[in-house]
């Protein structure tokens, strides 16, 4: 039978301690719902009383949040040095938050007691004992985060054990060993957790809380589980103070898919990718594409040899089935593609390509990417290139000529485009002004062909990105333009590359319009 390991998510507390990220009360409520949907055991909501936002959040959570799987936790600290528990504001705020469980941070390193708190070791241990006793007397489940545990233990294990005992003896349900500065390494963590386990036995759940300052937070958390920890604290996508907290989106599958531990209820680990992305979206911070398990590139294959092998054996270059975490396999078409990649892409798009056509696509791709094209980022241009290789030519319109004029009138620049276009047997000449050259050409082209293709009215450009490819050439540099468009049902991106920014823009624009007409809803 597999061993249960509790997951304690602190995205809403420690996760928000990273610079550059903030969340509204509404955001925090939405994230808590997502964490419950994922099925973590504990959701730490924040520090009630620390700021008005967290006060409002805990008040709203009591009425607006209905959790079905997770236990909601308020975070705070032990009482202040030389203070009384029943007069301590932090402890009072914890009670006011009205959660069934609370987590308090306690100093477990002698140095921090004497230097940061400026008090004695006796008082340091009494602060823990009194606080646990007080909260328990008010019917709270008490988890204790033993701050700086590993650094403290290395310097003075006797005091760190004393701090632990103060919590355990008074009835804490969990003692969570924190690598607060994130400087420990996996072999140290495993060894120290083993010693703690031997010391406290199974009277209390041992937890682990790691930071990623050495890039080892995930490995350290797993080492702790090997050493006897059965409760792991971390955040989704590894958000957190400085370099981040231990990343639960890696730890959960590492424990549950690769070892005999159960972290989430049956059927929930498949929600990992979508929850990770929803939480990131809510915090306006995209998931790193290369994030293990949940990143968009986690199962994306670019090298021709890899794709060729996967076509023959699905798991040839995948360490787990992506579906197990709700992710999926993707094939990236680029200059590194071989025949297998192009064949799979053609099958996906329903384009019939024979051997010579596949070779033609590969030759075009490699040549164009060498010139600066980047087809991974331009799905629509890639599809058009493959269709052309299959012998297709669009007959929506034919551009006879195009002229652009820009005048400076006082401080104002005016741009005007004239396009001459054939649509079937008809010839159209249209002029349009725009707030820049691309806008002027786009408007003139739409006027010229719009009557024949009403679907064009639903196509809107949503993004226009320009990148200089060889900065050394200054204003003579090659320019790459990426245009993203939508018709409300699908989005697509096209590309153009040229030393002339207008030409690069036009290539991307023409592909964009052609692709939009080709896929216009019927
Ligand atoms: C390792 C961690 O990440 S723990 C979580 C840390 N999170 C945060 O700090 C975010 C929220 N914090 C805050 O809003 C504020 O710091 C507050 C409201 C908690 C405290 O604010 P202030 O009272 O102004 O104190 P300040 O921020 O300067 O912190 C120092 C005080 O905390 C006390 N303190 C620090 N750690 C502890 C502890 N583990 N137990 C009890 N008291 C503690 C110090 O003794 C000091 O008190 P003193 O000024 O009476 O000597
Ligand atoms: C408690 C906590 O966040 C830490 O020690 O890192």
Description:
The chain contains 17 helices and 18 strands. The chain is of the alpha/beta class and 522 residues long. It folds into 3 domains: 280 residues, Alpha-Beta Barrel (TIM Barrel), CATH 3.20.20.70; 90 residues, Recoverin, domain 1, CATH 1.10.238; 121 residues, Alpha-isopropylmalate synthase LeuA, regulatory domain (Double Stranded RNA Binding Domain, 2-Layer Sandwich), CATH 3.30.160.270. The strands form 5 sheets. Strands 2-3-4-5-6-7-8-9 form an 8-stranded parallel beta barrel, surrounded by 8 helices. It binds acetyl coenzyme *A and pyruvic acid. One of its GO terms (biological process) is isoleucine biosynthetic process. Keywords: Amino-acid biosynthesis, Branched-chain amino acid biosynthesis, Isoleucine biosynthesis, Transferase.
